[in-house]
Amino acid sequence: MSRIIHLKPTAIWKGVCALGAAAVCLGLTALRPGRGQPVEIIPAGGTLAVLVMRPLSSETVVLGDIIEGKVVSFQGSDSEASLPPGTRVQLRCVAVRKAEGNVRPGYLRLTLTSLEDSGGNFRSVETSTFSQWGEERAREVKGALPGARSAALQGSAMSGALQAPLGQVNEAVITPDVRLTFVLLKPAVLDGLQSSR
Description:
There is one protein chain. The protein is α+β, with helices and mostly antiparallel strands. The chain contains three helices and eleven strands; from the N terminus they run H-E-E-E-E-E-E-E-E-H-H-E-E-E. The strands form three sheets. Strands 2, 4, 5, 6, 7, 8 and 10 form a seven-stranded antiparallel β-sheet that branches. It has a two-stranded antiparallel ribbon with strand order 1-11. A two-stranded antiparallel sheet has the order 3-9. The chain starts with 8 loop residues before the first helix and ends in a 6-residue tail after the last strand.
């Protein structure tokens, strides 16, 4: 004697949808770029030293600008984690202010937003920020006594030592030789790592 099981059409439909969804997820995972390459997990707490590829100034950088850079060194909290020098990165300007006359120096704040993996894709990361202020020029000539400022300015020996008018403020500037330091706030998961040649 055989039994016939009767299923409701909605139960069959739900089962087909669940199987279809699982198949799609597996298919997308198999097609993911970098599949088959080792996955590198960079733990939180690692410190990256980065150089920018071009000079930056609070006068020209705009809020939200994406800036390219490269890793110079990496100090991981886990001795096995590595991030090769030359790995390309992207930074984003999260705050900027131009210098305002003799009142306030310029200001730049950047965050590291992504690292390049071996497939040439940039993977998002979450890091601390790096801030740079413009410098205010010395208000008194070095070595001059208070109140002797005007006399020092008139002296021919001192006039060549001044590079800008006293009291002048300037823009925040980051040049390609300045190391910017960022700390990873969350672990970064990358499909292998790419270092530029």
